[in-house]
Amino acid sequence: MRGARFSVACNFLGKLFPRSLPPRLLLIFFAVIIQIGGVVLSWYALKAGNAITISLAVLLWLFWFGVVFLIAKPSVDHTLSPYRKIVHAAAAAIVVIMIFLGIGEVIGVHLVNTGVVKDNAMATTLVDGFGYNDATALNQQASQTLLEGENPYKKSNIISAAEEFKVSPEYLTPLKEGAFATVFPYPTDEQVDAVLSKAETSTNKPPVEFESKVSYPAGSFLFQAPFVALGLKDTRWFYLLCAIAMVAVIFWKAPKNLRPLVIIAFLTNLVLWNLIGTGQTDTLYILFVLLGWIFRRQLLLSALFMGLAATTKQTAWLFVLFYLILILRESGWKRAGQSLGVIAFTFIATNLPFIFSAPQAWMQGVLAPIIDPMFPKGAGLVAFSIAGILPPNSLLFTLIEVVVLILAMVWYYFNCRKYPQAGLLLAVLPLFFAWRSFSLYFYFASLLVFGAVIIEEYRKSAASKQPQLISTARA
What we know:
Blueprint (H helix, E strand, L loop, with lengths): L1 H15 L10 H22 L2 H21 L4 H5 L3 H30 L7 H9 L4 H14 L10 H8 L23 H10 L20 H4 L2 H5 L6 H18 L5 H9 L2 H8 L4 H13 L4 H12 L4 H17 L1 H25 L1 H8 L1 H4 L5 E2 L3 H5 L7 H22 L7 H4 L9 E2 L1 H36 L1
Parallel strand pairs: 1-2
Helix pairs in contact: 2-3, 2-5, 2-24, 5-6, 7-8, 12-13, 12-15, 15-16, 15-17, 15-24, 16-17, 16-18, 17-18, 18-19
């Protein structure tokens, strides 16, 4: 009986991952499990403050970058061919693990919400994480302010937004100002509560200790505003819709034999759904980046999508740089210049009304992630500074970030024709060395690389084989 069940399981896994699947695409599952390990190890390392543990966490994240780069490297299929069975078996095992982790998480959240599990700090933290963060709350507040006919950059208040959307204090962004001016490496819960207890939601002046500006370009609240106007109370549904749209685009453009893999890769991607559940807004600009990247042959449409990405979040600006390098190398200076013009026009057109209305407020908001005195935090190199191993100097990390960006752009200029999809990973590599290097800043690069490789490389491969099949049938 056991043998029969094992045979059925093997047959199912064989259908799930047939031998025809390109081995490097299966590396997406390895990337997901490595990231989960990286998040857990980084959290433990920061708690322990141990140099060895922090080094292991940083090395694990660098390994993650390496695995994602392998997905973008065409020759990896040939390299992994002798180990195809092992890769397929390991990927299937990871899928099973992710399914059980997902089921366990759903059960855990249900037990905490129903009161069955009590006094469990880890479970309570997990449940509290599923809600709005400060960016989600401020974006929705901005959409509501816009619908009321006012400029969101002139009127934003994180205290009232946090109260309205029930944002946990740990998901606010503290600044090194006021009561936090001399704090390092990060304000304690007691210090945060002390400042919040003094804040009055009725005042138009939120406490200087917390980021209260609309800190993104206008697209961050413009594109969701129609949904808010129609009565959408929880904008996480909007960002879930963006994620589903991204999956739908990849599924639609992928060769038929790879479409089941697309569905499996996204359905079992526990990190993606957790990020959406915790209020992350990145799926909007990531959707635009994907569309801009895969439609490069249609210049106007492609550049328009990249412009929409740029007007949604500052992280997209890095993708624009590598996009323009690829356009330059593939199509020449003229098309690169035209693309830049469309991107710039799109960005200006969406932001200009708010710039005219309040130029200083707009500038301070959009540049807030760059110029505001934020505390170090994240899974990257900054972990050494948080632990007191490296100097607590944000300028040092900014210089390292800029150097890495320049080196990545130079390398990509000379290698983008050979590894075009690598630009989607190199765009976020500098963020790993930034003063604030949350894993969500670079996590979505794995999905972009995965989707772009399926659409651009394997679709071309399938198309090139079709004429051969037709000629063979005629013969």
